[in-house]
Amino acid sequence: MLPSLDPLLHSPERLPFIKKLRCLLEDHGFEDTPTLVIQCAADDTEVANLDSGEVNQALLKGCNGYNGAEWWSGFMAGRTSKVFDGVSSVDSRSEPNWVTELHQDGHFLAAVRLMVYADLAGVHPAIVNAFTQFGELLKNLHTAAAVQARLTLTATLVNTRDVGVLLFPQYGQPQVRHLKRDSFEWPVYRADSAEDVKGICEQMGAKMSRLFPGYK
């Protein structure tokens, strides 16, 4: 289920993010899937040079810090393609685990499915690493696309009711707790520099980690 566009349910600064989020999930078939969506908006419009070959290469390369353990592959793409709002990248699966889009207005989104492996029965907290990797890829993309605007960032978890997440007690094996909410929303953060973006991504990851008590 997609988040509502009812202005009574969101702050005015979040509504533009929700509109972009809904389009991304609908276009790529994620609308009914438990998904983490991380977003960054640019204050200016029509700021991204999407015709640069460097943009395509940055999308294909993904995050420099990918360590090989995450199911979203550090956003290293199997293919890229043009979409209505800009350019998109996905992994090589017929049903991708993740997707990104960089729009003409400088807005960048990344959606990652909340994978639950059968041997774990819950989402692994490695998903927290997606935030810092998003920040790394964002830096590379904005350099390639010559985006120099001030930025705002946020994140949203959708379709999370009854999704199992792993807990890590001090003693014994990991346990599973099922989430009660349909969605989780982060505040909107403002960034004036690349260092601000890095710090904000770390903050958002730390907030996500609260869903996985005991994990270190």
Total of helices? 4
Q: Which structural class fits the helix and strand makeup?
A: alpha+beta
Low-pLDDT regions: none
- Structurally, the number of domains stands at 1
Proportion of residues in helical segments? 25-40%
- Which term fits the overall shape? globular
Query: Which sequence of SSEs, written as H and E, runs from N to C?
Result: HEHEEEEHEEEEEH
Most strands sheet: 8 strands, antiparallel
Distance between the termini: 32 Å
Please tally the β strands and state the result. 10
| Average pLDDT, all residues | 87
- Whole-angstrom Rg: 17 Å
Strand fraction equals 15-25%
Characterize the structure shown:
This protein has helices at residues 15-27, 53-61, 129-144, 194-209; strands at residues 35-42, 79-83, 86-90, 98-103, 108-113, 151-158, 164-167, 175-178, 183-185, 189-191. With 216 residues, the chain is an alpha+beta fold. It has one domain (15-27, 34-209). A hairpin with a 2-residue loop joins strand 2 (79-83) and strand 3 (86-90). The relative contact order is 0.19. The mean pLDDT is 87.
